[in-house]
Structure to design on (500 residues):
């Protein structure tokens, strides 16, 4: 176990929080938190990610723990206090991504291990490609460790590199890419794009810090979520890159804008729990209380991203005001993905287009266009080719239904679109395209009338017809009832929805 605190100036006379819930990923608590309130040790189970006791000025207390269970006394016995200067690079030197001797690993895997080592092996297994895993578990069983391992991944890494050469293609298959990178699509893709734009050199980013940041970001997505996982984040990042390449943006955006856009895409759903905002509200979740039932998930994604930026010190070399501005603008982009504010953004976008008042030499206008681009990237699944769009549709619907199953189990009112007995993938997707996707991408095509925009609209029309053809006996949801379901629920999991 390793625990890390960053202690900015934080009053110690604040009341003790009522409870501390264990979480996977980055969690943000209210500014009323105290450092010395002793929670129930049973509540301090395994956490993954940065936990942030956040206040209005975004100063925070960050904790990261690695291990199976934490007893409160052990927690404070391992505390190390640091100033706001940053975290030393060696902090996570024990992380499986950063220090692996694969020769020793293969010997240990092939010869068996004790129960105490099983957790480490599970964490390390995901680093191996399917081919390397087969060699380690079958072909290399009992063979001395001198067997060269560098050739085992050539096929997979070679194919991944070939795919990255066409990363700007709208037909990019993120599912295949995730398999070729052994589940590390978000890390590999984001790092490649940052390098392709020259942002690593331009902003003098430390590669060790950047790698750690991307590893932690990917870790803090819940890959047991059918939809809101790291593959979705990688898909949104790839779509964002396609939009950044559009002529209207490529000739106007600054390197700073591009860096913000890529980071926002990679972190926009960080630590998503797989349920929507109404679920958090009606179950009295502390996050709903913390953010006053407003953009609960989006605020949490933003603060989680800020937590990882500060923990890794990725921008610690920049002047404090610059890094604070970057955190604030990152939040502005992520908060724009709140589906409950869809009509506000769309109306503003439509007004700009009607009046031809968008001036991309204006920083605020460029930022607004980035917000719209991220919104499009976040819900672009209906605009992908059918083979990809169908997979995403099935995954998001399954996440809906899993929430509905939980609500039934605990005798809660089942949220709209979450009852697997009364809804189908097809009618959910047709409603979503009709009332959410088509209006948004129609306006985007007005702004950027390019081959890509027409391709997206064409795919969406074909996909909508395909879903209709797959359910000839089903009646499409009526226009009287669908706007509330499609409008507030229609982000693939309706994160900022206010419906109960």
């Amino acid at each position: 176990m390793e625990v890390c605190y960053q202690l900015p100036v934080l009053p110690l006379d604040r009341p003790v929080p009522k409870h501390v819930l264990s979480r996977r990923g980055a969690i943000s608590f209210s500014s009323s938190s105290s450092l010395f309130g002793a929670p129930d040790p049973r509540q301090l189970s395994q956490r993954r990610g940065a936990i942030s006791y956040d206040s209005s000025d975004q100063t925070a207390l960050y904790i990261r723990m690695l291990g199976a269970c934490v007893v409160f006394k052990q927690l404070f016995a391992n505390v190390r206090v640091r100033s706001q200067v940053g975290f030393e690079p060696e902090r996570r030197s024990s992380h499986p991504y950063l220090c692996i001797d694969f020769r020793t690993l293969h010997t240990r895997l092939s010869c068996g291990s004790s129960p105490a080592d099983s957790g480490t092996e599970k964490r390390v297994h995901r680093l191996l490609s399917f081919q390397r895993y087969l060699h380690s578990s079958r072909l290399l069983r009992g063979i001395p460790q001198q067997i060269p391992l560098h050739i085992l991944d050539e096929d997979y890494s070679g194919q991944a590199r070939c795919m990255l050469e066409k990363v700007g293609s709208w037909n990019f298959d993120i599912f295949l890419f995730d398999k070729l990178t052994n589940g590390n699509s978000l890390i590999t893709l984001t790092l490649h794009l940052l390098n392709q734009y020259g942002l690593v050199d331009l902003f003098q980013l430390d590669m060790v810090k950047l790698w750690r940041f991307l590893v932690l970001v990917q870790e803090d997505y819940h890959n047991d979520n059918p939809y809101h996982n790291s593959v979705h984040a990688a898909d949104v990042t790839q779509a964002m890159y396609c939009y950044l390449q559009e002529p209207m943006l490529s000739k106007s955006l600054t390197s700073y804008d591009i860096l913000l856009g890529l980071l926002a895409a990679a972190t926009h759903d960080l630590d998503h729990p797989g349920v929507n905002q109404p679920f958090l509200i009606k179950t009295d979740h502390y996050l709903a209380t913390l953010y006053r039932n407003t953009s609960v998930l989006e605020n949490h994604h933003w603060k989680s991203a800020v937590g990882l930026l500060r923990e890794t010190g990725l921008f610690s070399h920049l002047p404090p005001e610059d890094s604070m501005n970057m955190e604030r603008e990152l939040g502005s982009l992520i908060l724009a993905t709140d589906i409950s504010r869809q009509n506000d953004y769309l109306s503003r976008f439509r007004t700009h287009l009607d009046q031809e008042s968008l001036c991309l030499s204006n920083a605020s206008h460029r930022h607004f266009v980035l917000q719209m681009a991220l919104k499009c990237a976040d819900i672009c699944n209906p605009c992908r080719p059918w083979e990809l769009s169908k997979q995403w549709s099935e995954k998001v619907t399954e996440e809906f239904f899993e929430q509905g199953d939980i609500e039934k189990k605990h005798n809660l009112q089942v949220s709209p679109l979450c009852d697997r007995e009364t809804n189908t993938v097809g009618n959910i997707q047709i409603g979503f395209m009709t009332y959410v996707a088509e209006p948004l991408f129609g306006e985007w095509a007005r702004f950027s009338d390019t081959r890509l925009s027409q391709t997206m609209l064409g795919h969406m029309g074909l996909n909508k017809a395909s879903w209709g053809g797959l359910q000839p006996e089903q009646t499409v949801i009526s226009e009287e009832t669908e706007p509330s379901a499609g409008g507030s629920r229609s982000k693939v999991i309706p994160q900022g929805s206010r419906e109960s």
Notes: The first strand starts at residue 5 and ends at 6. The longest helix spans residues 386-409.
